[in-house]
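Folding problem:
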Amino acid sequence: MGLSPGCWLLQAQSDYARDLVEQAARLRPLLSPSSPAAACTAASGFTFHQGRAVDGGNAGQQVQGKSTAELADLCRARPECKAFMSNGWLKSTLLPSSYWTSGEQGVCSGLFVKDGGV
């Protein structure tokens, strides 16, 4: 006995729905709100504040063309460095967070504060 007309359509829709749910489960880590911070974990020993900036308190000149991990290494190597910006500014002075401003908006754009640095 074969499937009644329309029954095969219900089975196809069910299979399609199951496939969509499985695909969504695989993509969820990439789309979740925690993903931006997770993508910036290359800076171990630092707390990431997405989209935040600090004016002034620079430790020298802006360092351009460096990855987050390289900037973290540069900051770790300088005892006076308290934080760094994703755009390459190392910070020797860090005001309380109530004085921070909005900065560049991107997945890993923001302020990386050395743990225990504030």
User: Anything to note?
Assistant: Helices lie at 7-31, 35-39, 68-76.
